[in-house]
Design brief:
The complex is a heterodimer of chains A (about 550) and B (about 425). Chain A is of the alpha+beta class. Chain A is built from 13 helices and 23 strands. In chain B, the strands form two sheets. Chain B has a three-stranded antiparallel β-sheet, with no helix packed on it. Classes of the chains: A alpha+beta (about 550), B mainly alpha (about 425). Bound molecules: protoporphyrin IX containing FE. Protoporphyrin IX containing FE sits at the interface of chains A and B.
């Protein structure tokens, strides 16, 4: 079908060419009096994928360069994506569940259908190998289809012949034919002026004219596809572990913790939650607790010395302070801390107890005792205390030994060695529960035996206690691929705007035997082109109506 | 504040009435061309301008509603279904104004205005009170995201309206061969769907005006870690319960037309919050839509498409094709920016990940992919005319599903917080 590729104008075309690359004459003739609008895609130039004897690589290339295949890939992605919204995906669970647990969950909540849905792997569609494969195939298709088309298109547009074949002109979508005006040159001058006013570039070759504008918009689709490629690569790049961190931290007021795997420490200075007042709520919500603001006053520290030495206190330098709120994360050199959640936990931060000598009734102190990182020795009046052990969440293990159930100060207990009046030289062991309930629950006085009769450690007034009411949950993230995601998205936007908000328009005109023939083409918005051509012709003295220029109507 | 709120509500009511008037004038502009002693083109132009003037006035009232509510609430009113839908309607009128000024096509008005009216009416099904923001919604990125996404969707809506006229125009109602019949059936089916939507609105507002109420006690059995947990919910109905919730008993039932108790029970596999009520609403919508359809068929004595079709004959289907495509082409970048990119930025700031495969996000992606397919088929595979018009129609259905369906159906099935 593509056998004869030499045009009558003498130009030798590539196999697969539809319109002569030089004069534009249709090469795949059906009938001499065929006036149907021409297929103008890529100006009829052959693409790489149109080869006569394709080998395997050609076939792969052809597969991925086909828009038909691309459309199928997009449709499949679309369908797969929608199937994934039928039931909740596994990623809604923050904890990791086993296959059986998940299966049970879906069965219990969504019945047989849910169980089958899970068994088919549809509960993790978006991370499944086949979904990712679809995305990779779209990416491949994007690369190949762009390469396949952009060069031929560039070639076609960069060396355009001004005088086109008559058939090329009369078979455009927008056409005009009429008697040639008296003074061709003057008329062409006038018409050219009109087109220039409409921001066309105008070329003349004798009495043939060509005008063109907004050629750049033809590159829009290729630019947007490049943006998409970058975007897809960035999304794949998020799978690189070193580029990614996602973990949660739970901090009471005043608590400082190391961000695991980094040199950074975060301190929660204070967490506050604010609720709407009843007067701010509409009728139907009055009396309900509706949060207005969560705020973690946070300080980020960088460790500068003795960071990996467990025997020494790390030396910290504050690098950033920020009020972390929902929608206002703390951000420092690619490290981001987000307000995720909070829980209500009343926990001690510090107490300042006094020591009372039970015999004399004398009172010493108070001395400052924080739950986290307390000092090792204390001198309180005549007493000297050495901290032996701290159990933040006191309990007794199976062997009857004291232990701590967690690292959170739910039931703190301090074990001191106390020396002082009435006590032996070597001192006595004394266990102190700052929470009154714990003191009773764990029978502090019995544990302390005889020492309990000699002295008492207790908090005098509420002023000497500081509490944390909430534990804030912070999400710590590093996502080094994000800049590329935004770059890809921006390039996509630029390309899509170029391609869709401007149209490439071209007008060709020539005279034959006293007949003026004009053809015009645009890659989209024929209506606008028609209006423009009609206006220019009218201003140049030829009265035509917009509708009469439409070639499509004449054929149906 | 409450006074401003009242002004705001009145402005919306005014907008609704003016839009309805504009719709009537557009109908006169289109339908009255063949009235005796008139010059059709002049008639069309004159009434077209009157109708457009009303549409613009309606939009002014609508903008007044939006701004006064914004001031009264202290935040831009885009944060619940009522606010979003009223804003979407406003965006549609904006998009319509743009496209109308380019193409001056009265038919576009005759089809876009009823769409706007329907959407405002749908918004009014939801509570209109001003609600305070929860922290995650208090973000400028979210506001930019919601408004631009709505504007993009509004252009899709105008593209949909043009495509619908195009379909009614090109489907030949005199053809009796197989393909012709099928095309007619599809168009007619789509008109029925529109009537079902109208049926839904009519029944909700009629029973609301009549103060109808019914209430059920529903026992819900959930299995939590292998243990059955029974909880009791109260389910309220605003429409007479044809279908009652699964495993429930009547607390209150206003009799309606001799119906004293529900006729059916919701199947047990529907498990969401209020899924019984939703099913009942769907049954009512279909019933009343079908009744409306039959009534209109009885009056017209032919297919509804065949009634509309002859009034569209003097318009070029190619122009409609162009309008629909142009509108979608304008909307596509706006939607990409608002519906996806701004959404990703907001998600990144608020939830620490730009994409989380949450159903709403996924459906925004599906909408976008769908219009991508539309553009590719049109550009590179030459899908023009009726095929392309069907895609534009389906595309807007996808938009609506993303906006409403996801909250109603998917959220309802999964019983996370939904609306109505
Ligand atoms: C999700 C993925 C894709 C998106 C969002 C996308 C988007 C677009 C857009 C917006 C246009 C411009 C439309 C216009 O100018 O009216 C376009 C054009 C095009 N796309 Fe894609 N595209 C995607 C994937 C692909 C793939 C995989 C192929 C591979 C075959 C492809 C091939 C093309 C072609 C050939 C054009 C027309 C170029 C021209 O007019 O010269 N697209 N695409």
């Amino acid at each position: 079908m593509f056998s004869n590729t030499k045009c009558e104008c003498g130009h030798q075309n590539h196999v697969g060419t539809v319109l002569c690359e030089s004069c534009g004459k249709p090469l795949t003739e059906t009938g001499a009096d065929d006036f149907a609008p021409l297929e103008m895609r890529y100006d009829g130039v052959a693409r790489r994928s149109q080869k006569e004897n394709p080998d395997l690589i050609d076939r792969v290339w052809n597969f991925f360069s086909s828009v038909k295949i691309a459309v199928w890939l997009i449709v499949l992605t679309l369908v797969a994506a929608s199937v994934g919204t039928l039931y909740p995906q596994e990623n809604v669970f923050r904890e990791t569940l086993t296959y059986e647990e998940l299966s049970q969950y879906y069965r219990e909540n969504y019945g047989k259908a849910g169980e089958v849905y899970h068994a088919l792997g549809l509960t993790h569609v978006y991370s499944s190998w086949w979904f990712v494969t679809l995305l990779v195939m779209i990416g491949t298709s994007l690369v190949i289809c762009s390469l396949d088309r952009v060069l031929p298109l560039y070639r076609a547009l960069s060396k355009q012949q001004i005088r086109k074949h008559l058939q090329f002109i009369t078979r455009q979508q927008v056409v005009y034919a009429g008697p040639a005006p008296e003074d061709r040159d003057a008329w062409l001058e006038r018409f050219g002026e009109q087109l220039k006013k409409r921001r066309y570039k105008v070329w003349r070759d004798g009495d043939a004219l060509m005008a063109e504008k907004n050629r750049f918009s033809r590159w829009g689709p290729y630019i947007n596809h490049i943006g998409l490629i970058i975007f897809l690569l960035a999304v794949l790049g998020r799978g690189v572990p070193a580029w990614n961190m996602d973990q949660y931290m739970y901090l009471d007021d005043g608590e400082t913790e190391q961000i695991p795997g980094t040199n950074y420490y975060v301190k929660n200075e204070k967490f506050t939650v604010e609720f709407y007042k009843d007067s701010e709520l509409p009728e139907s919500l009055k009396g309900t607790l509706r949060p207005k603001l969560f705020n973690t006053e946070a300080t980020l520290y960088e460790c500068t010395e003795s960071c990996d030495d467990p025997t020494k206190e790390p030396v910290l330098r504050a690098v950033e302070t920020h009020n972390i709120q929902v929608n206002h994360p703390l951000s420092y050199h690619g490290l981001k801390l987000y307000q995720t959640d909070y829980s209500e936990n009343q926990r001690l931060i510090s107490v300042s107890p006094v020591i009372i000598n039970k015999k004399t009734g004398e009172k010493y102190g108070p001395f400052y005792l924080p739950m986290r990182n307390p000092a090792l020795t204390y001198d309180v009046g005549p007493y000297n205390l050495t901290l032996r052990d701290v159990f933040l969440d006191f309990g007794i293990d199976a062997q009857g030994r004291p232990m701590t159930k967690s690292r959170d100060p739910n039931a703190p207990a301090f074990v001191f060695r106390i020396k002082g009046p009435d006590l032996p030289e070597t001192g006595e062991t004394y266990i102190y529960f700052p929470n009154r309930v714990d003191k009773v629950r764990f029978s502090q006085d019995q544990l302390n035996k005889s020492v309990a009769d000699k002295l008492d450690i207790r908090v005098d007034s509420m002023e000497n206690v500081s509490f944390s009411n909430y534990t804030t949950t912070l999400n710590v993230r590093v996502d080094r691929a994000m800049p590329f995601v935004w770059v890809g998205a921006s390039i996509f936007m630029i390309g899509v705007i170029m391609g869709l908000y401007w149209n490439h328009r071209r007008i060709w005109l020539r005279f034959d035997d006293g007949i003026l023939s004009l053809g015009a083409h645009t890659n989209k918005n024929n209506y606008g082109l028609r209006t423009e051509v009609a206006a220019a012709l009218n201003k140049a003295g030829l009265s035509v109506s917009e509708k009469s220029l439409d070639n499509r109507r004449k054929t149906d | 504040m409450s006074q401003l709120f009242q002004i705001s509500q009145s402005a919306l009511m005014a907008a609704l009435l003016i839009y309805s008037a504009s719709f009537v004038f557009y109908m006169i502009a289109v339908g009255g061309k063949k009235w005796s002693n008139r010059e059709p083109a002049a008639h069309n132009r004159k009434w077209g301008w009157i109708a457009f003037g009303f549409a613009a006035a309606g939009l002014a009232a609508h903008v007044t509603f939006f701004i006064t509510r914004w001031i009264a609430a202290g935040h831009i009113p885009t944060s619940n279904m009522y606010e979003f839908m009223t804003m979407l309607a406003m965006a549609i009128m904006l998009a319509f104004t743009v496209i109308y000024l380019i193409y001056r096509n009265t038919l576009l008005g005759a089809f876009t205005l009823p769409l706007t009216v329907i959407i405002i009416a749908y918004a009014s099904v939801f509570p209109s009170e001003i609600q305070p923001l929860i922290p995650s919604l208090n973000s400028n990125w979210l506001r930019v995201h919601v408004t631009t996404a709505a504007l993009g969707e509004a252009f899709f809506a105008v593209g949909f309206a043009a495509a619908l006229v195009q379909l009614l125009r090109v489907v030949d109602f005199t053809r009796t061969d197989k393909a012709g019949k099928r095309a007619r059936r599809w168009v007619e089916g789509f008109l029925l769907v529109i009537l079902i939507v109208i049926g839904f609105l009519v029944s909700v507002f009629a029973f609301r005006a009549a103060g109808y109420e019914a209430e059920f006690r529903q026992e819900v059995v959930k299995i939590v870690q292998g243990q059955e947990q029974v909880s009791v919910r109260t389910v309220q109905y605003g429409l007479p319960p044809i279908v009652k919730p699964h495993n429930s008993e009547v607390v209150r039932f206003d009799p309606f037309l001799g119906m004293e108790k529900p006729l059916f029970t919701e199947p047990s596999w529907m498990q969401g919050v209020n899924s019984g009520r939703k099913l009942n609403t769907i049954v009512w919508s279909i019933l009343s839509g079908a009744i409306l359809y039959l009534a209109l068929r009885l009056i017209a004595r032919k297919q509804l498409g065949a009634v509309i079709h002859p009034r569209l004959l003097d318009i070029d289907p190619e122009d409609l094709d162009e309008i629909s495509y142009r509108s979608i082409a304008i909307g596509y970048p706006i939607f990409t920016l608002g519906g996806l990119i701004f959404a990703m930025i907001w998600a990144q700031v608020a939830w620490s990940r730009f994409w989380g495969w949450d159903p709403k996000e996924v459906w925004a992606l599906i909408t976008w992919l769908f219009y991508t397919v539309y553009l590719h088929l049109r550009l590179s595979r030459g899908w023009l005319g009726a095929k392309s018009a069907w895609l534009a129609v389906i595309g807007f259905l996808v938009v609506l599903f993303t906006l409403i369906g996801v909250n109603l159906v998917i959220a309802g099935l999964h019983s996370y917080a939904g609306v109505s």
